[in-house]
Amino acid sequence: MKIVHVISSIDPSQGGPQSSCVRLAAAQSAFGNDVHIVSYGGADVRQRAFQSAHDVPLFSHIQWHLLDDPGRIEQLLCVDGAKALREVLQGASFVHIHGVWEPVLRSAARIARQKQIPYCIQPHGMLDAWSMKQKQLKKRVALFLGYRKMLDQADFLVTLNADEARLLEPLHLKVPNLTVPNGIFLEEFTDLPQKGYFRERLSLREGTRIILFLSRLHTKKGLDILGTAFSLIAASHPDADLVVAGPDGGARESFVAQIDQLNLSDRVHLTGPIYGRDKLRALVDAGCFCLPSRQEGFSIAITEALACGLPSVISDACHFPEVGTANAGIVVRLDPVDVAHALAQVLDDPTMASTMGKNGQRLVRENYTWPRIAEVLIQGYNSVGRGKRTMLPGQNTLVAAADH
């Protein structure tokens, strides 16, 4: 089976969709499929992307078709992208489109229809209510100018959880959805680095405990909420520091200003983006993971934190209630007081934190692995037009394939 994944950029600084696209493609190749990725990615992007995914199993099996970083005209008209897509889609069995609001993705859908190749679209949370309110007018115009057609004529949408599927309802799309989460490769978390390297890199004082935020520094990630929450527990927990790791997505400057105003600059450490082994070093040295996000599809960062045995404090807008039901962490409202209370609970009870860490590892390892997810999606590809329904192994999530 020739599977072609299309994504606008493979730059890991863009967040979870890039990471999940690469890992899904690698996992699908393990089943003997001919798997391709079409994307923009100049020399600098390629270096970052390939370095961050160096340890992904079967990474070398992926067939790459990378275009130079697009200029303004290419971004709008997708001339080079369309040419590459016509070539790569020759003989394709299925096209998996990651994202929504990019001309190269619309071109991929159009060319797939022209060649009568079935395709699905994975919005990665870009169509839920919160996301649709951002640049709302621009997105409404885009839907009118062809993006709704792109969505409606897909064979199915891939949603990451039941909440995302429900949040699509206001759009009244005419396409079924298949709900499949993100995951991990167990191999990436089998040989974790020894503790201490990341702590030494930050020159933390002896005995300091780390609250780790690992994501893009973007408004939707709730950094301002985390900053206020940390200020509420900083005095009562003098041995705890906040580490913020990730590329700037537009919120860094305002967050730094907030921390300065709260007089916490000596307790908050911004590392910039970290990938690969360095990311694992940060996770194993942390005592707690926190992501009070305003919107998530299915956070790769949360899944990786759980896989490393970190108790996690996350918002209900992360749409990962299993963290709470499995007692792998605490799910809270988007409120700084609630976040602060949850962080204090984890810091004040080492026994509970340890139990949560073990529960989180078990939750991820038993339910959220890329080979299992890849298998379900391949079943979805093969079930187009057959009206089949399947169950994700080890989950209670119903997965519905397209039924045209």
What is the strand and helix layout of this fold?
Blueprint: E1 2-9, H1 16-29, E2 34-40, H2 43-52, E3 63-67, H3 72-77, H4 79-88, E4 94-98, H5 103-114, E5 119-122, H6 129-133, H7 136-152, E6 156-159, H8 162-167, E7 177-179, H9 197-201, E8 209-214, H10 223-233, E9 240-245, H11 252-261, E10 268-272, H12 276-285, E11 288-291, H13 300-307, E12 312-315, H14 322-325, E13 329-332, H15 336-348, H16 350-367, H17 370-382, E14 389-391, E15 398-400
Parallel strand pairs: 1-2, 1-4, 2-3, 4-5, 5-6, 6-7, 8-9, 8-11, 9-10, 11-12, 12-13
Antiparallel strand pairs: 14-15
Key descriptive features of the protein:
alpha/beta; 6-stranded parallel β-sheet; Rossmann fold; 43% helix; 7-stranded parallel β-sheet; 17 helices; 404 residues; single chain
> What does the overall shape look like?
globular
Count of DSSP E strands? 15
**Rg, please?**
21 Å
Uncertain segments are 385-404
CATH class type of the largest domain: Alpha Beta
Biggest sheet record? 7 strands, parallel
GO molecular function, one term: glycosyltransferase activity
Keywords: Glycosyltransferase, Transferase
Protein name: Glycosyl transferase
Domain Glycosyl transferase family: 199-362
What does this molecule look like?
By secondary structure, the protein is α/β, with parallel strands linked by helices. It folds into 2 domains: 2-183 and 369-400, Glycogen Phosphorylase B (Rossmann fold, 3-Layer(aba) Sandwich); 190-367, Rossmann fold (3-Layer(aba) Sandwich), CATH 3.40.50.2000. It has 17 helices and 15 strands. The protein has helices at 16-29, 43-52, 72-77, 79-88, 103-114, 129-133, 136-152, 162-167, 197-201, 223-233, 252-261, 276-285, 300-307, 322-325, 336-348, 350-367, 370-382; strands spanning 2-9, 34-40, 63-67, 94-98, 119-122, 156-159, 177-179, 209-214, 240-245, 268-272, 288-291, 312-315, 329-332, 389-391, 398-400. It has a 7-stranded parallel β-sheet, with helices on both faces. Strands 10-9-8-11-12-13 form a 6-stranded parallel β-sheet, with helices on both faces. Strands 14-15 form a two-stranded antiparallel sheet. Helix 1 packs across helix 17, helix 10 packs across helix 15 and helix 13 (300-307) crosses helix 16. The longest helix is centred in the last third of the chain and has 18 residues, at 350-367. The chain is globular and about 65 Å long. The two termini are 21 Å apart.
